[in-house]
Structures are given as C-alpha cells and as structure tokens.
Amino acid sequence: KSLDHFEKAYESAVSSVNPDFGNGEVFVKLPAESMSTIADMQPIRINIEFSLEQPDAGLHFVVPAVDGSLAETGAHMFSYRHENSSRLWFPCIDTYAEPCTWKLEFTCEVAMTAVSCGDLLEVVYTSDRRHKTYHYYMSTPTSAPNIAVAIGPFETLVDPNMHEVTHFCLPHLKSILKHTTSYLHESFEFYEELMSSRYPYSCYKQVFIDESYEEAQSFATMTIFSTSLLHSSRIIDQTIITRKYMAAGIAQQFFGCFIVMQTWCDAWLPKGIAAYLTQLFVKKTFGNNEYRHDIAQYLKEVEQYEAVAGGIVLDPSFNSKGMYFSCMQPQTMSPTYLEMYHKKALLIIRMLEARIGATLLLQVFNKLQALAFAASQQKFMATAWNNMLLSTNSFLKIISTVTGKDVQPFIDQWVCQGGFARFIGNFVFNRKRNVVELEIRQDNTAKGSLKYVGPLEVTIQELDGSFNHIFNIEENKTKFEITCHSKSRRNKKKKIPLLTGEEVDMDLSAMDADSPVLWLRMDKDMHLLRSVTWEQPDYMWQYQLRYERDVVAQIEAIHALRQFASPATRRALTDVLECEQAYYKVRIEAGMCLAKIANTMVASWAGPPAMLMIFRKMFGSHSCPSIVRQNNFSNFQHYFLIKAIPLAMSQLRNMHNICPPEVVRFLLDLFKYNDNSKNKYSDNYYRAALIDALAATVTPAVTTVTITGQSINADLSSDTKSILEELTRCLNLEKLLPCYRHSVTVSCLRAIRVLQKFGHLPSDPSIFRSYAQHGTFRDVRLVAIEALVDFIKTDVNMSELYWLLGVVERDQDRYVSYETIQMLSQKPPFHRGEESLLNTEELVERLWKLINSTLSSDSRIRCGVADFYFAMFGRYRPACLHAPDSFTVYSNVKEKKPYNPAIVSETLTDMFEDEDDDIMGFTSSMPLPSTPMKSEPSLGVAGPSGSGVKRKAESPPRGQPIKYPLFLKQESGFSLGGESSNPVKKLKITGSEDSQGGSSRPGGRSEAPVLPYQGVARGDSQSRLSEDSNSSPTPSDSSQSRPLTASGTVSGPTSFQGLFSSTTSNSSASYLPGPDTPLFTSAHAPSADLTTEVTGDPSGHRVKKKKKKNKHKHKHKHKHERSEKDRLKERVGGEKMFASSPMVPSVQSVTSMSSNTRDSAPSSPDFEVI
C-alpha cells in the first residue's frame, strides 16, 4: 500500500485506455467489405446503441427534495468533465486531437429547456405535447471533451447588445441574471479587437446551474457557471470575481475550445494563452494595478508550491519524474499541482511576451486563429483540421514565421523543465568611485530551484532619476558595478524624477548623506519566474513604499518593513494608509503591517491603539468621531478599507498578549452604530468582516489546574461574553433575514470555532456537522467542514474524520467532496512519523479503498485522496501496517542468522529519515523527493536489527515461497541475476494456498496478498517472533468480495478496480457505513515463487556492532542449521542459478509476525528474496 506502487499501476491503467496512445475501452472491428470504402476515402457510419442509467460521473442531476413537479422545484441536470472525460456519459473518441462535426438531439419534458453546443436547428414536439426534442448542429469541428448539455426549467435572456449571445438561469433569478451579464458584450469586443480576429463560432450561451462541478467550465459555444456567481447591483465584492470568470469563459472559446491541445504535453499553450488574454481584459477593465497585483500573486503562489513540492514541468514529455504521481496525464495529477500548472502556464506566456514583444505575440495569436478558421471550413479532408490543434512544435514554427525569432532555448529552459530562479542580492555604494557594487547570488540547493543563465534587469532609483541596467547572469555568484548618474545630495529637499516621469518632492534627511541611491529593484516587470531576496537599509524600503508608483514594489517594501520596527517605519506605513492616491490593496497591506509593528513596539508605543484615530478620521461622524457615520459605499476604495482596518486592528496585542479592551469596545460599537438604511449597496460583507475581526481578538482562555490535575475553566470575561452575545444575535438574525451567499453565517461559524479552540466554549462538533449537511448553501457547508477538519486535528477525533471521508465518498455535490479532501490534505490530522491515535490500519484500508476502486469514476477527487494519503503516510508503505503474513529474515546467506524483522535498526531508519511527507499546497508544506530513492521501496517488511533474537524453528526453514508481486519485481532497487562482491542477504517469504490473491492488473499478472499478522507475541523491551508462528492465515470470505460493476455501458477513463490485494477492514463501519461495493476482487489460486537476487551495500546492516551492545547472549544454535545450508546449496546451486529458479506451489508458512508489532520500515536493498 505505497503510493509509488499505486502510481505505476494507476498510470498503466489510464494509459491503457488513452486515445492519444491509440487505446480505448471499446474496440470496433471493421469488416473486410469496408476496406474498399476506406480506400475510396468514403465515410463509414458506425452506430453504437447504449443506455446510461444512474451514472456515477459525467452527468449530474439536481433534484430538490421538495413537493411539486420537476419544473416547479427547479430540478435540472448538466454534464461536466475533468479534462477529457466525456466517455463517462457517451461513447466517443475521448481526446482533443480528434475534432469532428456533431448533430445532437435531446428529448425532455415540455417544461424543460435543453441547451447544448452548436446552433439550435429546431424544436419538435411529440403528438401528445408532453415532450419535445431539441436538434443542435455543431458545424465547426469540435473535440468530444468540448461537448456538453444542460437541461432544466431555465429562464432565457437574449443579450440586448449581442443577439448571438443567450443567457440561461434557474427560475426566479432572471433579474440578477440581467445585471450580472449586462457588461458581457465588452469582453467580446475587447478580444476581437485585441487579436484582430472574429469570435470563431456563430453563437454563445451561458448557463447558470446549481451544484456545479467547478465555478465555471467552458465548452464549445457555451459555458456552464455556478449560480453563486450571480449577483444584484447591491453587491460589490462578487462583481470583480464574476466578471473575471465570464471573461475567462469567452477567452477559452478562442483557445481551449476552438483551438485545442494536440496532446496533454501541449496543454500549457491553450490554457496559458486563454489565461493571458483574460488578464489583459482584467488590465483594461480593472486597471493596471489590479493586473500587476494578480500577476505578482500568481508568481508567489507558484514559487511557494515549487519550493515545497518540486518543479512544475509544463511539457512532461522529456522530464516527468520526481513526483509521487504521474505528470503525463491529467487523470493522474494532483489537483493542487494542476491548479499551479495553469497559473505557471500564464506566467510563461507572459514571459514569452517579454521575449518577442506584445505586438508580435498578438500577431502570432491572430495567425493561429486565421489558420484554424480556414481549416474549420474544410469539410472533406479531416487532415486539414490539424491546424485546429496546437502543439509546442507548431507554436514554435508560427513564432518563427511571424517574428523570425527562435525561442527554442526559452522553451527548453522554462517549459521542458520545472523550477524557478532564486536570487539573493545586496549592494554597497563606493563613494570614491561613485559606483554601486552589486552582488547577485543564486541558491540552487533548495527544492524547486532552477539555475538561471541569461539577462537580468536591475533598476536603480537615484536622485537624478530612475535607470535600468541589464546584466548577464552566468554563475551562481556574480558581482557587477553600476556607475551612478547622480552625486550625493546637497539639499534636504529636492524634486526627484521617478520611473513614470513624474517628479515628486522628497524629504532626503533620512538617507545616507554620501550616497545618491534611493532604492534598487530586481526584475521589476516580473519577466522571470523567480524569487528575490533583496537586502537594503530600512530607509530605502521606506522611500520605496512612499514614492514608488508600482504596487508590486510597494507591497514588497511593506513585507520587508516587517523586520524594521521603528518610529520611521510606523510613520511610513501610516502615510500610505492615509494616502488617497495609493491603491487600496496596498493600503490594506500597510494596515496589516502596521499592526505587526505596533505589537513589536508595544513597550514604547505611545497614544491610542494603532489605526484607531485613522479610522475615526476617515469614517467617524463629524460631530462625534467615536460614532461611525452612516454607511455610504459609493467610494469603493473606502468600502474595502472600512472592512480591512477593523480586521487589522483586531491583530493588536498589549504587553500581556491580549487584545486591548478599547479595541474590542471599538469593534462592538461598530456593530451598535451600523446603519445601512440610506446605502444603495449591501453591507453583508462589511458585517461579516466585523465578525471576523471580533474572532481575531480572541486569545486563549486562562485555565486553572488543581492539585489532582483537573482543569477548571474560569468564567467568560466580559469582553468574551460580549463577543459571544454579538455572534448569537447575528446568527439568529441571519436565520430570519439571510444575506447574500450567507456571508454572515460563514463568519459566525468561523468565529465559534475560534472560541472553541481557545477554550471559551466546549469543543463540540455537532453544530458544524449540522451545518455541513447536504441541502445547506455551499459556502456554509464548506466553512462548517473547515471547522471539522480543524476539530479533527486538535481533538484527534476518529468519528468526525470518518464522517468527512463519507462526504468525500458519497456527497451529492462533488465540488463539496473535492473541497473537503483538499482541506484534509492541506491540514492533515497527522504527518508521517508522528504518533497519533488516528494512525491506524483501519484508516489506511479505508483510504486505500477510496483511491483503488471507490472513486474510480472521479479522477479529481481520487487524486485528492492520494494527496491526503501522502500527507499522512508518505510515498512508501505506512508504518502502522503489519508486515506480510509470514517471512524470515537472514542477515547472511552463509551464517543464516535470523533476526526479528519487526524491530527497525537505526541504520534502516537513517535511510529514510530525510523524507519529508508534508502534503503539497501553496498554503502548506509538502516536500517531495526530487529524485527516486536509491534504496528499495517498502515491501512491507522491516529490516534486520542488531537486537534481534534467535529462536528455535518449529517448521522446516525451506518453505515454498509465494509468487513475487509484479510491482515489487519492477522496482529499481532490484538487480535480477546481477553479481556483486557485497555479502548477499536473503529474505524468505512464504504463503499459504488459501491466501487471497489480488485482482488482475494491467499486463495480466496477479499479485501476492498482504495479510495481517496472525500470531501475537512481544518481549520485555522488543518485539519477538512467536514460537508458534507456523499457523496459516485465514483466507478472506470470498462471498464478501465481488467485482465493482460500472453503472453504464461506457466506463470512465480510470475505471479499473483492484489495483492491489488487501484485506477488507470492517471496523470502520462502526463510524460511518460505507457502500456495499467491496474494496478488492477475490481470487484463490495456489501461490508460486519468483526468486530474485538482490545485492547492496553491506554497511546497511551493522550486525556485529549491534550484537556487542546486547545484554543477553544467545548461545544456542538451531539444530537444523547444517541441514538447512545443505538444502539451500542443493536448491540454489550458485547465485546465477538461484536468480532463475522455477516457480513452485506454496506448501506451508514458515513464520507468522506479531500482530501487535506497529513499527514496519522499508526493507533494505541488501536482501535476496527467495
């Protein structure tokens, strides 16, 4: 049960049905009579009749459990996909590389509306007028993954600005649909004008549905959105988010639906180009500040992920190793990796823009669109449609044709390999030579780092202006000199020209009198995938924060100033917070930083709490500043600030590490005097932010411990009582008057969990479980599940963990299931190597069942469970599992000294102590081995220990070994038939005839079972082999195992079961009953052996040194030792003959491991398996 073994079997299974490799799940044999038709290039029609009943994936039905007809209750259905997975709901060639035209017919009830891809030709009613059939025709060649359908009682809205665009929503939502989509025509106009190319299709449809698989999914001529994206004119926060999603949906019509990837190795191109176009629309609509802030945020997230998990390879055709999952296909990739993959693709396209120029890049896009459109008009030759497929090679050719530039080195450096450049820089001003001595270093030792060779831009701001310098980076450590254009300052105040051309007055009294340098920046335009650690004095960061006009530079200065707590830093942050010309996100960051500075300077802080006077000055009443004015959110910058400043103030702490009482009273007064009666915008997000601020003021409760050890919680403080009363009032009011997206309820639940965690309320998960039930609004469910995840980690509660795994496995809303497993992955109950009551074999069995068979139809959630498994157990076999049923370990072939394999030696422990098993995620830590370990992966067998104990054998040592598992035989740690001068160790594994065999795997080979221990014995201070260990394991009841059958005729892309053999654990049913589907397929067959010679470093087991330290000397010998040697010599006859010994049926077991033994380490490569 190791992820390495699962990954190999999983990738093999997915590849076996991958259409890009010429494989599939349904094979049609053409008759001989059709050969002449094929030779004449005539079309052949193949009819496939199929029935799809109760599908597990591909189609989702939303049927509210209320009285009324389907139309009255708003019941509807829609299709969804995870990359190429259309085969889940109709038979097709499920690849992007096979476009074709489509004729689609959908029959539904008369009250329903069917929306699908292409043009609607007609609607035909039945004679009884109870049903109708929609006829759609997709004339533009389209790939099967880009076909979709949605059926429901939709309300229809034709866009008043573009009659080719139609919007659909569920009943009673048409009013907010009209407002939400009122701007959509601007997106079409922007993209068409930007690329000088028309929209490639004749129509476009937007469908808003409930329980969506993702917030937005684009298909040919249509996009399916979540209903949660709809909003009225009173909502501010959602507007920006929704417009970005809609703009992305239209951009993906150009690249992603019309022009598609040729193979998955080329997926970075359409995904990156569509995201690049979306960001250009964001830049035009929301401004350059929003655009640059988003790019900087994406860059930071990708860097953080790669620093923890390893490099993201956009084109894995030549470099796909290093992860515990395969990067060659989307169905095998971690969901978090896939999310970062999309963001990195955007950054790479943007870097390409810097290489060839924005204008030339847009000309390349225009050329691609023109060639694809011309190809789509050819209806006779399918080969002409190849121009609608985008590959890395064709993209390079188009760039070379349009621009005459060769970007192959760029592709090799940033696309064909993963990682990012790490720059560490500092400088010193040389007054005598009037030069800046610059030193730039690269850190290539950390995970995810990439050695960069090429140009690097450094910008220096001097008294006489800003100047850019380009340096060529060739070594890891390089020194440069920059000749300054300015002399040292003469006056304290002077107009300084900035990079934008603006001249500003600066107070130069804080700077060095001998230096004309104000600040330096590296790669200011983010044209590299890099992280920069820049060292300069605090006054330079303060100047950069005050006077630099780039929002990215200002935020960098704010983050750097957290390390410089001083009155000058306090004044700089205050100035920016009060500056009306500053970008609102920069002002918010300044407020958060000011709270940290105030906490650091709490001993010397004078005056009222930080930001209190600023807030009253900006938002207080003119007659009484302590009372907030009536809400007026017409100024959006002030709206975001009035939400952020209270949250920043809640981070303040006094000398006792407690939030000052005046801050708590200030926040409670904001609730008291909140008046939204004359405001044309909703205040729901403002009230939710105030609740979040109240929760942030809570600190751990004071607990008294008696002499007997019992804890006595003191009564709630007055401030905590006031907070709890306000939360109760808001939560009850929300029941009567729910706000948009229940944002107040979300914040209240989050605050209640904070009170529980800090000891002010009893830690009770029942309230969160009630809110997490299906039928509650999605946002409320997710925050309740988030609280349960935190509860599981802090309280070590197995029942709640199993309940959440039930949500992952069976919840109707698959988006909630996905988010649940993502939360568990980012915040697992324990990490590998940690002692936890939750680290049980039962948990391993349940997770293994989920990733092995139960979630075979949903690869996104399946890979999410694999992430969760990795976070807790790592890549190799979990230590909590018992070793294989029966085996004996010998330290040396000649001496035949047996050792207890349940005891892990220090040498073996050192072999794996470097593995870090944190789960991947940009908000969490999950280092992954960048290269495969040279030692053999775990066989579920503990290595020999110097403290092992000899025992008297009760059975002949020469048992008949079981057949060696295929996935273990293929491990790189084995050397079949090789010779080595190192001493050869042996590992004898035997099994009984009745052992349960594994189900068949790709390649037609079966696997050996891994069964729990049958014998139990433990010594005083160490595990010992039981002397009564010759009992055979009890075979599993074959009636409890049956193959998992698919619901429909066409199975999913990863719908295979029984990757590995296992025993079925029933103890989990006491927490949450699972479905009747068994974990594995039962198979009974006599075992056979496969002998393999393994050589390795003898230093892996220092047996002699260990035996010197043993207090007990075991001087007895096995009576059958001499005969055992003779038998082995007769059987083996030399190492080479031994490596090719035939397989014989298993007769009996030799030994049986103790079931109480919990420590199981991966076996050493210094063994010979017989």
Helical content stands at 25-40%
Shape: globular
Instruction: Note the main sheet.
Output: 5 strands, mixed
Helix tally equals 33
Strand content: 5-15%
Q: Give the N-to-C terminal Cα separation.
A: 21 Å
Low-confidence runs of at least 5 consecutive residues:
891-1125, 1127-1170
Biggest sheet: strand arrangement: 8-9-10-12-11
Question: C-alpha Rg, in Å?
Answer: 33 Å
| Structural class by secondary-structure content | alpha+beta
Q: What would the average pLDDT be, to the nearest integer?
A: 79
Number of strands: 30
Describe the protein's architecture and organization.
The protein has about 1150 residues and is an alpha+beta fold. Among the domains are: about 5-40, no CATH class; about 60-250, Zincin-like (2-Layer Sandwich); about 275-415, no CATH class; about 420-535, Sandwich (Immunoglobulin-like); about 535-605, Leucine-rich Repeat Variant, CATH 1.25.10; about 880-915 and about 940-1035 and about 1080-1170, no CATH class. It contains 33 helices and 30 strands. A five-stranded mixed sheet has the order 8-9-10-12-11, covered by helices on one side. A four-stranded antiparallel sheet has the order 1-2-7-4, with no helix packed on it. Strand 8 (about 155-160) and strand 9 (about 165-170) form a beta hairpin. The two termini are about 20 Å apart. One of its GO terms (molecular function) is RNA polymerase II general transcription initiation factor activity. This is Transcription initiation factor TFIID subunit 2. Pfam families: Peptidase_M1, TAF2_3rd, TPR_TAF2_C. Belongs to the TAF2 family. One of its GO terms (cellular component) is transcription factor TFIID complex.
